[in-house]
Amino acid sequence: MIKSEEEWKKELTPEQYHILREKGTEAPGTGEYYHNKEQGSYLCAACGNELFSSEKKYDSGSGWPSFWAPEKSENIDAAVDESLGMRRVEVMCSRCGSHLGHVFDDGPKESGKRFCVNSASLKFKKKE
Ligand code: FE
What we know:
By secondary structure, the chain is α+β, with helices and mostly antiparallel strands. The protein has helices at about 5-10, 15-20; strands at about 40-45, 50-55, 55-60, 65, 75-80, 90-95, 100-105, 115, 120-125.
């Protein structure tokens, strides 16, 4: 799913565009889903791809929505990110390539992984 940056710019808010398309990061503790405990699915804010579920969300204390696994691993792409003088693993939506956040190896016992994701990269769909 390839859209031009001009198209993304029209469809997304400036904050979403910065985070999703320019690999930005929202300030910790400010995102709308950090404290969300409702049951449902977290979709890619850009393309609607199903990325995460409330069942694998946990409170990491980091300031960003955190999940110990994606809903469908094939919907997430990972790449080494060496920006800001750190070596991290970036995670992206596999359908549209938008930036979601990073995955770290300090997650809870279920997987040992912590998918640290910007709220602005997600759209929550409440379970009906
Ligand atoms: Fe997407």
